[in-house]
User: Fold this.
Amino acid sequence: MSVELSVDGMSCTDCEASVEEALEGLAGVESATADHETDTATADGEVDPLDAIVAVEDAGYDADTA
Assistant:
């Protein structure tokens, strides 16, 4: 299962890395990707969408389910 998020506030590859790191820190996440050009992030694995949103917001970005 994967969770796709819409993420506002990413403007560079460092931002993508911050979002990916936040998502990969969640239990059950096998991998994560983020793309600042499309304002999206995806977490692959068994993860609650709300946990993913909170993790991204804690990293400093606005997030919602895509």
User: Anything to note?
Assistant: The longest strand covers residues 2-8. The chain has two helices and four strands. The chain has a mean pLDDT of 97.
